[in-house]
Amino acid sequence: MCLGIPGKVIELFESNGMKMARIDFGGVVKEACMEYLPEIKLGDYTIIHVGFGLSILDEQEAMETLDLLKQIDALGGEEGFAA
Amino acid sequence: MPEKINLLGWTCPVPLQNYPTIVMGHGAGGKMMSDLIEHLFAPAFDNPLLAQMGDATALDLPPGKAAFTTDSFVVSPLFFPGGDIGELAVNGTVNDLAMRGAKPLYLSAGFILEEGLAMDDLGRLVTSMAAAARAAGVQVATGDTKVVQKGHGDGLYINTSGIGVIPAGIEIGPEQARPGDVVLVSGTLGDHGIAIMSVREGLRFETEIRSDTAPLNGLVEAMINAAGGRRPPLPNSLHCLRDATRGGLSAVLNELAGVSKVGIEFDEKAVPLRPEVNAACEMLGLDPFYIANEGKLVAIVDKGAAEAVLEAMRKHVYGKDAALIGKVVEAHPGLVTARTTIGGMRVVDLPAGELLPRIC
Amino acid sequence: MKYIEEYRDADLTRKLLDDLRRAITRPWTLMEVCGGQTHSIIKTGLDQMLPEQIALIHGPGCPVCVTPLELIDKAIALASRPDVIFTSYGDMLRVPGSGRDLFAVKAAGGDVRIVYSPLDALEIAKANPQKIVVFFAIGFETTAPANAMAVVQAQAQKIPNFAVLVSHVTVPAAITALMESPDVRVDGFLAAGHVCTVMGTWEYEPLAEKYNIPIVVTGFEPVDILHGILDCVRALEASEHPVSNAYARAVTRDGNRPAQAVIQRVFEMTDRAWRGIGVIPMSGYKLRPEFAAFDAELRFPEVQAIETKESPLCISGLVLQGIKKPVECPAFGKQCTPQTPLGATMVSSEGACAAYYRYGRLGK
Predict the structure, then answer these.
(1) What's the number of domains chain B is made of?
(2) Do A54 and C197 touch (CB under 8 A)?
(3) How far apart are CA C75 and CA C78, in angstroms?
(4) Per-residue pLDDT tens for C260-298?
(5) For residue B231, is it within any domain?
(6) Considering only CA atoms, which of C88, C32, C87, C42 is closest in space to residue C62?
(7) Please, what sign has the CA dihedral across residues B95, B100, B101, B106?
(8) Are residues B226 and B158 part of one domain?
(9) Which of A72, B270, C125, C191 could form a disulfide with C133 if both were Cys (CB 3.0 to 4.6 A apart)?
(10) Distance from CA of A77 to the nearest CA of B (A)
């Protein structure tokens, strides 16, 4: 389950009393509900599942992980088990 | 003159102004129907064949093997980004003829109108059809109109049949693919299906994607010339042609692999895709290789002719983004496989029925 | 697309496969819980690129596969009513019930509509006050916040003609049931990344402890999945059983608190039947009594009497638990094919049976 796609918040607005956003998925724009992400800001990337934002992507975390994975013998030993 | 209906380029639509929508009488064979033909259909298509106004139209056919095809168009909504059902109805049938190497000549047009269809909409669609016919170089030589009760149709259904002629020396068919051949596509895939989805109820999204509906007969002619098909005794290097409509690339390749009893392998990365189509597919959980196109073809050509054919395609307005995406092999006859983005391999099946967005 | 392309990089994938080959010294059986992960693995061909010592079992992580037959039959009964507009995510339309599927109901004149979001179903209800809109609220914890919000909004915006047919299932109970089953032999789990964006990772800590298994929260792209497998294998090789997070860009230990709060408000835990597996205690959600007005089963009590006939031939439950392989099913490829599926694992394109069917034709 759980087709969740990352998209960028390009507009925030309200509809029917709910916090909403227009999300840009690399050229396709669709509205999504931001009620579960009260701290969301313009320019943030979020994972959208069935029209709802569930998580704000942590760019720092993403970059660090990718860097780590790219290193030779990545995550050998204890560093691999960051919870 | 009382309230004028804004119907582009028509001659005297006066009698129709009393009927802003289609009613059952328009299909009853009486005055209302003949008014509709005289003031809407005939002026739009405007050609001497149609002007015969006979129960059947007498035609002259140039020498060669005749090609004959039919297709029905039931798309909803009737108007979508980049086109409408009228354009589809012309281009779809023109393309079916072109995929056999035939020069398309004449179309028939059968309209099933739903009671309540706005006259304005019908006018726009017929005008659009006429323009598409002119662009493709074909004439609508005969037609028919029926009206069904409200609730029994999606506004409008169109059937078009087409007649063309296949010049001597052309042998293009789904059984012709041979191991060693290469697979070409004429441009970006998935545009039409995504354009339709973007205006579909329950799924609407904003996108610049427009339907790619286009007549491909000119492109095919350029390809045949480049492949040496018209110059015997040079062997015909253009083996198969298919327009990738319902079921997309996957349906076409699976059919060709099945009929020719060969295997087909393609490279996912080599298939041209607009970034927005890719994004829409990601968002809805769709596979771009299963999505319908209305102005793209798949060609299987002899390896030696590939470069020349590709060059000819890229010079043509409907083949600018043409690409070589795969090859025909002896292994796994009837099956299509793809090299995935990470260098793995997957079997690309026939899509099972209607393409549905998923959450899973 | 940002946050997608980087995780599909062919070079990084190859590199991680090398790391995996170096790390592994003996056979390990891993289970990925989420259907979306299975889909990604099969779509990219990743399963065939893994070292031989890794056996990957595709777990019961797909609502299509685990929604009980009975609920499909109830959905079909509701969709057949002339006073109902039945709305659903696309996945469920092709799943066969005892007799037919929702597509067939649509063909027979039922008003069945696909929606992208439960809020769309709400809009349909507002636009059609003379009908009752029933929404098929399926899914794991990932989808629960969205489904819950539809109910909250129906109440807040006073939309009386809206009801939900609930079939939610939860992951931790499934893992428990699998580990308690004597036939199941799984060494480690790749937990569902998007479930964890909502629920966090803390629920898995007692499970990892109790069953001595590593549980690695994993994403969906090839690089993410390899990252998860690598973490899991390294833990197994070191005889450790942590809960680790290989999807840290999207998942935190606490999860999404506002979403959890709304789930709690609308739903309560309940026993749920998992298709082919049976009833797993406290493994799903049902609507709390204060939202009874929106419960389709209470609104239309006649569906409660629906009787179910599972195909006697279908062993999808055993396949979902990794106990049997699809090829071991007598109906596989004969009565049961993707065009004529007997069970959910053949209907779903990432169901194990459908996947085997596809690759089996290659002679693998």
Answers:
(1) 2
(2) yes
(3) 5
(4) 999 999 999 999 988 878 889 999 999 999 999 999 999
(5) yes
(6) C32
(7) negative
(8) no
(9) C125
(10) 26
* B4 lies within 8 A of chain A by CB: no
Q: Which of residues 306-335 of C touch B (CB under 8 A)?
A: none
* Domain-ending residue, one of B166, B201, B234: B166
- Tens digit of pLDDT for each residue in C158-189? 999 999 999 999 999 999 998 998 888 899 99
Best CA proximity match to A32, nearest among C146, B199, C156: C146
Give a yes or no: residue B352 inside a domain: no
For residue C60, what pLDDT band results from cuts at 50, 70 and 90?
confident
CB contact B202 to A (< 8 Å): no
Specify whether B151 is located in the same domain as B255.
no
pLDDT value at B6 more than 70:
no
Distance in angstroms (rounded) separating the CA atoms of residues A33 and A50: 9
Q: Of the candidates A3, A25, A29, which has its C-beta nearest B359's C-beta?
A: A3
Alpha-carbon separation of residue C25 from B288, B311, C66, C341 (angstroms): 39, 52, 34, 39
Q: What is the Cα gyration radius of chain C?
A: 21
Inter-residue contact B72 to B157 (CB < 8 Å)? yes
Indicate whether B273 belongs to any domain. yes
Q: Which residue of B has its CA nearest to C49?
A: B344
- This prediction's pTM: 0.90
DSSP class per residue in B245-299? -TTHHHHHHHHHHHHHT-EEEEEGGGS---HHHHHHHHHHT--GGGS--SS-EEE
The CATH number of the domain where B133 resides is what?
3.30.1330.10
Identify whether residues B238 and B102 lie together within a single domain.
Answer: no
Name the one residue in this structure whose structure tokens are 């110059």: B231
| C170 has a chain A CB within 8 A of its CB | no
Q: For residues B200 and B280, state if they share a domain.
A: yes
Q: How far is C296 from chain B (nearest CA, A)?
A: 21
Question: Domain range spanning residue B226?
Answer: 182-347
Cβ contact, residue pair B282, A5, below 8 Å? yes
**Is C350 a residue whose pLDDT tops 80?**
no
Q: What is the average pLDDT score of chain C?
A: 91
Question: Given A2, A26, A49, which is nearest B279 (Cβ)?
Answer: A26
Please, what are the domains in chain A? 5-73 (2.30.30.140)
pLDDT in tens, B142-199: 999 999 998 887 899 999 999 999 988 888 999 999 999 999 999 999 999 999 988 8
User: Would the CB atoms of A28 and B276 count as touching at under 8 Å?
Assistant: yes
Tell me whether C235 touches chain A (CB under 8 Å). Answer: yes
Taking the C-alpha atoms of residue B331 and residue B334, their distance in angstroms, rounded to an integer, is: 9
> Quick one: fold of C1-318?
Rossmann fold (3.40.50)
Place of tokens 């396949």: C319
Size of interface B-C (CB pairs under 8 A): 96
Chain B: give the shortest CA distance to residue C108, in Å. 14
Contacts of C123 (CB under 8 A, 6+ apart): none
Q: Does B200 touch chain A (CB under 8 A)?
A: no
Q: Which of C63, C114, C362 sits opposite B332 (nearest CB)?
A: C362
Same domain for B124 and B19, yes or no, is yes
CA within 13 Å, CB half, B117: 30
The answer to whether A62 contacts chain C (CB < 8 Å) is: yes
- B9 found inside a domain: no
Q: Using CA coordinates, name the residue in chain A closest to C202.
A: A83
* B137, B203: one domain: no
* Together in a domain, B89 and B157: yes
Domain positions in chain C are 1-318, 319-358
Q: Are residues B264 and B125 in the same domain?
A: no
**What digits encode the pLDDT tens for the residues C72-104?**
999 999 999 999 999 999 888 888 788 788 989
Q: Does A17 touch chain C (CB under 8 A)?
A: yes
Q: Tell me what pLDDT residue A77 has.
A: 47
Q: How many CB atoms lie within 10 A of CB C33?
A: 27
